[in-house]
Each structure stands twice: as C-alpha cells, then as structure tokens.
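Q: PadR family transcriptional regulator, please. Structure only.
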Amino acid sequence: MGHKPEETKKSKTTNMGTPKNFLIPIMLLHLRDWNSHGYELMEKIMQFGVESVDQGNFYRMLRQLEKDALVTSEWDVTSGGPAKRIYSITEAGEQYLEVWAGSLSHYQKMLDQFFNLYNPFFTPYRSPPQKKDDND
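A: Structure for PadR family transcriptional regulator:
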C-alpha cells in the first residue's frame, strides 16, 4: 500500500563506469602500439570497451599527459585537411604504463578472490589472448 522511496533506490542498477584514472593506462597502451590523432585514439578506447568518453575531459587528460612528459605530440599537416595533433608515448610513458600493469595484475588477483567469495561457481569470462595476424 505505502510506497517506500528507499526500495526504489535499491532496485536501480548501479553503473559505476570506468574510473577516470583508468583511462590513462588505456590511452598509453594504445599509444604504445601506434601514434594517433586524438579523435582516433578516443575511438580505439571506445572499441576497447570504455562505454562513454567525455570529449572535453579526454583532451584535457591528453594535454596533462603531455605536460607530465608521458606523451608527446606534433602537428600533422600532411592529411590535406586542417592540421591535427599526432600523439606518441614517451619512454617515461612506457615506464608509467609498466607500473600500471603491475598494479592491475595485483588488482586482477583481488578481483579473482572477490568473485571466488561472491560465487564460487561463477567464472568471469576472459577472452583468449589475441594473436597478431600478419594478414590484417
């Protein structure tokens, strides 16, 4: 009969999204494999599985990574249209990415323990490692 507002709040699904600072290692990881324009990099990150990327925040992060000397950029005037910045990872960026990889490996172990306790019969899906194909 009576409607309890707290029940409505609990029934909503919480989507925590991607932590903002987790975008940094994803950005660096993609720049490790190829130099990229900002827009192209943002598209690759969305293909990676990040559901939504705030464009303004994304470019602020890129500029901050450049200030921190983790990435470098130069103007590309060869594309025939307006000049675009091409971003590249630096050696410091590679080292920073390596630290992140170590932290994420530790975090992965904690996640595995979490799911083992949460539901011992639940096995999170992990895609098999992809092999690079020379025919791509």
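A: Brief note, in case it's useful. The longest helix spans residues 91-118.
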